[in-house]
Amino acid sequence: MNCLADTCVGTKKRSDIFVPVKHPIMKKLVSTICILSLFTCLHAQTQASLKLKLPVLDKSPMDMAYFPSDYPVLKIQDKASDPLVARIIYSRPQKDGRVLFGELIEYNTVWRLGANEATEIEFFKDVKIGGKKLLKGRYTMYAIPTPAQWTIIFNKDTDIWGAFKYDEKKDVLRVTVPVQKTASVAEIFSMNFNKTSTGADLIMAWDDVSVSLPVSLK
Q1: Strand order in the sheet with 149-155
Q2: Phi–psi pair at 88, nearest 5 degrees
Q3: pLDDT value for 29
Q4: Could you give the 3-state DSSP secondary structure of residue 36?
Q5: Which Pfam families does its entry note (predicted)?
Q6: Which residues, in sequence order, are CB contacts of 61 under 8 Å at separation 6+?
Q7: Residues facing 17 on adjacent strands
Q8: Which of 65, 151, 152, 164 is deepest in the core (most CB within 10 A)?
Q9: Residue of 139, 137, 134, 142 lying closest to 113 (CA atoms)
Q10: Residue 107 pLDDT
């Protein structure tokens, strides 16, 4: 018999060679092989996922402060009667038994007002800080602490890590505020707005120290 190479083997058709598996033992063997193959694939995928490296929680996690302070919640409830004025993004380091001001945070030295990335504030309208006008926009905030007062700095160079590249030439505004001793110790650095008759006071507190920066909308 003359056959084409891809249809015949010797005198038999190739289709005659592959017969269905009908023997019970062979069926079990084929099923077992399929299950083992599936398990191997799933195990390989699991092993691959276990190798995924995720960043650990930072010791000084980021937080936000708004003015009005409850603006995000009121917005989703359609109850926000006052427009958003300001938003701060900052890191919240912990005291953790350390001596802070005068040691960890040196006096008369520019401080990032937190940890890691320098603190940033965005104003959505023009305001007055300590009686001085500040145009709406985004700024990096720094502080120069002393035992009696802090100099709060608004700088136009944003997206900065630390205060290592701080450039005084890019300062937009500087305001000096007095230091107040607190009755209790603030373990975690905190920034928040307290509403006033003319706007808000930006409160910055850590350890047994706090300062209040007046923000006027009038």
Answers
A1: 62-67, 86-91, 120-123, 137-145, 149-155, 171-178
A2: -115, 135
A3: 65
A4: helix
A5: DUF2911
A6: 91, 92
A7: none
A8: 152
A9: 142
A10: 97
CB 202 within 8 A of CB 213: yes
Q: What is the pTM of this model?
A: 0.73
The answer to whether 158 touches 171, Cβ cutoff 8 Å, is: no
* Cα–Cα distance, 67 to 6 (Å, whole number): 79
- Contacts from 153-158 at CB under 8 Å and sequence distance 24+? 153/110, 154/121, 154/129, 158/120
pLDDT along the chain (218 residues), means of 10: 45 49 61 70 59 77 90 77 91 95 96 94 96 96 98 96 92 97 95 95 97 94
Beta strands of 75-179 (E only): which ranges?
86-91, 120-123, 127-129, 132-134, 137-145, 149-155, 171-178
Report the distance separating Cα 188 and Cα 185, nearest Å.
9
* Sheet arrangement for strand 199-216: 132-134, 127-129, 199-216, 180-195
* Token duo for residue 190: 């905190």
Q: What is the pLDDT of residues 71-84, one digit of tens each?
A: 778 777 877 778 89
